[in-house]
């Protein structure tokens, strides 16, 4: 049986292929994962261009392009359905890496910029709802 990595309900998540580190909420009530994006634009060749805000306190953004992995109708927490584009990337938490699908959506009004749903967590992570790793400041990398 595979050993599960225990994570908190809020975690620092790394998306190394994109060079992004973001605070994420583990949400076992959500089926799929989502990341806060703007300027989502479909491109020829089944690709998408999107912009991730690196910090809400600054105007630093990162624009990326990726193949569209899936299109799916998703119901939000408010009960409204939306068609979303999903891309595939690597998620790194607690020393474990996993390829996940993540939907691109505007989460500007949400507290958590990234949501980790059951599909991303299943089989690899165990969520301890009593642990909150946002309270643990990240050490800045020396350059």
TrEMBL record:
GO terms for biological process: proteolysis. InterPro entries: Asp_endopeptidase (IPR008503), Peptidase_aspartic_dom_sf (IPR021109). Coiled coil: none annotated. It comes from Oceaniferula marina. Residues 7-130 form the Retropepsin-like aspartic endopeptidase domain. Pfam families: Zn_protease. Keywords: Hydrolase, Protease. One of its GO terms (molecular function) is peptidase activity. Transmembrane segments: none annotated. This is ATP-dependent zinc protease.
């Amino acid at each position: 049986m595979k050993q599960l990595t225990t994570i908190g309900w809020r975690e620092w998540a790394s998306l190394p292929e994109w060079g992004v580190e973001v605070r994420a909420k583990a949400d076992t009530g959500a089926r799929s994962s989502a990341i806060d994006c703007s300027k989502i634009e479909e491109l020829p060749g089944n690709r998408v261009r999107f912009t991730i805000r690196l910090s809400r306190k600054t105007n630093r953004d990162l624009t990326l392009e990726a193949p569209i992995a899936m299109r799916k109708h998703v119901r939000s927490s408010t009960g409204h359905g939306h068609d979303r584009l999903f891309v595939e990337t690597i998620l790194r938490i607690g020393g474990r890496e996993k390829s996940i699908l993540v939907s691109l959506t505007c989460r500007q009004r949400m507290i958590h910029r990234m949501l980790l749903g059951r599909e991303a967590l299943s089989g690899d992570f165990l969520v301890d709802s009593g642990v909150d790793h946002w309270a643990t400041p990240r050490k800045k990398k020396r350059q």
